[in-house]
Design brief:
The complex is a heterodimer. Chain A has 13 helices and three strands; from the N terminus they run ααααααααββαααααβ. By secondary structure, chain A is mainly α. Chain A has a two-stranded antiparallel ribbon. In chain A, a hairpin with a 3-residue loop joins β1 and β2. In chain A, α12 packs across α13. The two termini of chain A are 48 Å apart. The radius of gyration of chain B is 20 Å and the shape is globular. Chain B is an alpha+beta fold. In chain B, β2 and β3 form a beta hairpin. Classes of the chains: A mainly alpha, B alpha+beta. At the A-B interface, α1, α2, α3, α5 and α12 of A face α1, α3, α4, α5 and β1 of B.
């Protein structure tokens, strides 16, 4: 009986270790690595209490496999042409598998763009506005004003718009966030000398900014972006976020402090100051893009979507069943309201 | 009979446990990021003339750190299936060069920003997400590395900066281009892109 148990155990062990070995991996044999890849994969699977069957290796698409076999010799032909640094593991025939949509891991992030011709024209306009006016002005300003002062100016303006964030936290029923933002406002106004400094974000007080606006509030209540609008000067937006922007104006202190020209002037100054701290960001986005217009549109959509989701995400400790979170060095005490759920 | 069984069980657990410890995703990313920082901080490579050496070393680390086929496959998504193996091959190379051209200057411009590794989250059997932050004098930039386990190595297949996924961003662009163009035309666009910036 015991020897039977033993042999069953051995059998299970053998399956665990060799379970995936049907797939020959030509690359691994060239590598000095002591652990064979299949070995490792199965081990990880078994550690998560999952049957190796769920590993993608075990259920390859038949067409993919066949395509593999066809492509393998071509890879071998192609590899000498490639730059020398690619002769490591990369072009494994396994990697030439067809793309298969994985369940729940990839989401479609897209936005309708019925106004594309207008939007593209406005993109050109904003692009020129940035390179011909905003950037040179911000660069000149950067030469005169030291960075510390510019950060303080940004803090000051950010502190003034605290009411917008408090109200939107409350509208989203995120009362913890509202309380934190209120505490932040108090701390930074008093200890931070009218908001010039940001002691609240520091490690000791740890009240991070609750970056909420009315566009996100509408999103939290299920209103979609609708379609893409690229406004002149204001840039990427949508009907929802435009309404949000207008809604937030009611809480913007500039509108109560002064006449409209002073208000616009202050806004322009704020924009120049912000730009002086982020020169290069837009340039690198543009340079990295194949189609900068589409890249900017997509970045905007992703950014806003994740902002809205961060609120919907709450603390969410038990999302993605069985997910293991390992807190390592310098892990914050997770007071962040904005925990994005992984896709 | 009992004792050998216990010993065997113990051995099995050891065998099961050891490789996992060795391949923790966060450590892999951290080791590679630290290698990058080492190159960037190397006082011997400070001179302008050493720029090519630096680039060469960074390329080497890039190959250790990133799974470039996975990057390409995911950036093309469904469109990947419409490319024949030769086109895929070229696409992988071109996309790597596009990324290099786009980001190498930013990386080389590094000046003592601090990199903090926050935590790792296991997404599935073979995927994990590493949260990091780059702290500059004026702001903190959250950067997420998504890594995938292939052939026993954890390699990066996506980077998420300030909530924007690099791969999804390229995917939208490639989708948009391939809606109107053939794969060959896309490759031509990429070839021009790579040449145009050098």
């Amino acid at each position: 009986m015991k020897s039977f148990k033993l042999s069953v155990l051995l059998f299970v062990f053998a399956i665990l270790v060799l379970g995936c070995a049907h797939r020959p991996s030509p690359i691994s044999s060239f590598e000095p690595s002591s652990v064979s890849p299949q070995h490792n994969q199965v081990i990880v699977a078994s550690n998560l209490d999952q049957i190796p069957l769920s590993s993608p290796e075990m259920s390859p698409k038949p067409e993919g496999e066949r395509l593999d076999d066809v492509s393998a010799p071509q890879d071998a032909l192609a590899s000498p042409v490639m730059p020398s640094n690619s002769d490591d593991t990369s072009v494994d025939d396994d990697d030439n598998l067809d793309y298969v949509e994985e369940n729940g891991t990839t989401e479609k992030i897209s936005i309708a763009d019925p106004l594309e011709p207008f939007n593209r024209a406005m993109y050109q306009f904003n692009d020129k506005l940035y390179f011909w006016l905003l950037k040179p002005v911000a660069q000149g300003y950067r030469k005169i004003v030291p960075e510390g002062a510019r950060v303080s100016v940004r803090n000051f303006f950010s502190n003034l718009t605290s009411p917008i964030r408090i109200v939107n936290c409350m509208l989203q029923a995120n009362f913890g966030g509202a309380a934190r933002e209120l505490g932040r406002f108090t701390v930074n106004t008093i200890l931070g000398i009218g908001g010039l400094f940001d002691p609240a974000s520091g490690k000791n007080i740890n009240l991070p900014k609750q970056d909420e606006d009315f566009g996100q509030t509408l999103g939290v209540y299920g209103l979609g972006q609708g379609f893409y609008i690229n406004w002149p000067i204001l840039g990427p937006s949508s009907p929802r976020d435009t309404v949000g922007l207008v809604g937030d104006l009611f809480l913007h202190p500039f509108n109560y402090l002064a006449t409209w020209d002073v208000s616009v002037g202050t806004r322009a100054y704020e924009k120049v100051n912000d730009t002086s701290l982020t020169i290069g960001d837009y340039e690198s986005l543009k340079e990295a893009a194949i189609d900068p217009y589409v890249a900017l549109r997509d970045a905007y959509v992703q950014y806003r979507l994740n902002k809205v989701k961060a609120r919907g995400g709450k603390p969410a400790p038990s999302d993605a069943g069985g997910a293991v979170s390992t807190a390592t060095e310098e892990a914050p005490p997770s007071v962040h309201s904005g925990e994005t759920t992984p896709y | 009979m009992k004792r050998p069984l216990a010993v065997l069980c113990g051995l099995m657990f050891l065998l099961l446990a050891l490789p996992v410890r060795a391949g923790v995703p966060l450590d892999t990313v951290k080791v590679n990021v630290n290698k990058v920082l080492e190159v960037l901080r190397d006082p011997k490579l400070k001179a302008e003339s050493a720029k090519e050496t630096k680039k060469e070393r960074l390329r080497y680390i890039y190959d250790l750190m990133f799974n470039k086929v996975e990057l390409s496959r995911r950036a093309l998504a469904q469109n990947w299936n419409n490319l024949n193996p030769a086109q895929r091959e070229e696409f992988v190379q071109l996309f790597r060069q596009v990324l290099e051209k786009a980001y190498i200057d930013k990386i080389l411009a590094y000046s003592d920003e601090k990199v903090v590794f926050d935590r790792e989250t296991i997404l599935s059997v073979n995927k994990a997400e590493i949260q990091t932050k780059i702290i500059t004098s004026s702001k903190e930039v959250p950067i997420l590395y998504r890594v995938i386990l292939k052939d026993g190595e954890w390699k990066v297949y996506d980077i998420v900066v300030e909530n924007v996924s690099l791969i999804l961003n390229y995917r939208t662009q490639f989708n948009d281009i391939l809606a109107k163009n053939t794969p060959d035309q896309l490759l031509e666009i990429l070839r021009k892109k790579v040449k145009g910036q050098s």
